[in-house]
Write a structure and sequence with these properties.
Elements lengths: L2 H7 L1 H31 L5 H30 L4 H4 L1 H15 L3 H4 L4 H9 L1 H9 L15 H21 L17 H17 L10
Helix pairs in contact: 2-3, 3-5, 3-10, 5-10
Length: 210
């Protein structure tokens, strides 16, 4: 029996072959994306230590999850899977969308050094505010640290752009839209669901998590 006969007689082998190719392509792309995100998240004093202990592992895992979600969605979009697993494909699409909304800052530990530096000036800022010399928010360390403030402003701009692109407007309700940011626990739940879906489909996910 030649190779062509073997593949044509074994649909499961064809399915596994397709999955292996899709999974490798998307997981590798997700890995590269995650490493890039990890580097960006570690651009601070102590870059080497920060990247090795925080940015790289978190960025890599997040990138792999995004790649896995994309791989599952591509796999479920192939006929005849598309006709049989439409509901599952919609769920995976929702998971992929949720993962794309996750920032490294959502799941990384707080920058304790920056916060400590800001708090060093907190007491004096409160005194200045009491004397009417400072109108800044002295209850928030981020307001006293230029790096933290710039980061918060950028994330606020990203949130605003996301709201505009999705047609969400806070003016309709008379209040400023303030969507809840995802947490590390949310990402863990999404990961567990993705792996459960892969098992349900009989697919093997061979990934070394950081």
């Amino acid at each position: 029996m030649d190779d062509e006969d073997f593949w044509s007689d074994d649909p499961k082998a064809i399915q596994n072959s397709e999955w292996d190719k899709i999974s490798n392509d998307f997981t590798n792309a997700g890995y590269r994306e995650g490493i890039t995100a990890g580097k960006e998240g570690a651009l601070q004093e102590g870059f080497d230590a920060g990247f090795a202990s925080v940015g790289a592992p978190l960025g890599r895992n997040l990138g792999i999850l995004r790649g896995l979600a994309a791989a599952l969605l591509a796999f479920l979009s192939h006929p005849p899977m598309a006709a049989q697993r439409g509901t599952l494909a919609e769920e995976v699409r929702g998971i992929a969308s949720a993962l794309s909304n996750v920032r490294l800052s959502d799941i990384a530990p707080p920058d304790l050094e920056a916060l400590a530096h800001a708090r060093e000036h907190l007491e004096q800022a409160r005194i200045d505010a009491a004397m009417g010399e400072d109108e800044d928010d002295v209850t928030d360390p981020a307001a006293l640290n230029e790096e933290l403030r710039a980061k918060r402003d950028m994330e606020g701009l990203e949130d605003l752009m996301a709201q505009m692109s999705s047609g969400v407007s806070g003016s309709a309700s008379g209040a400023k839209a303030n969507p809840k940011r995802p947490t590390a626990e949310d990402v863990v739940r999404l990961k567990e669901r993705l792996l459960a879906i892969a098992r349900e489909l009989g697919l093997e996910v061979d990934v070394q998590w950081s």
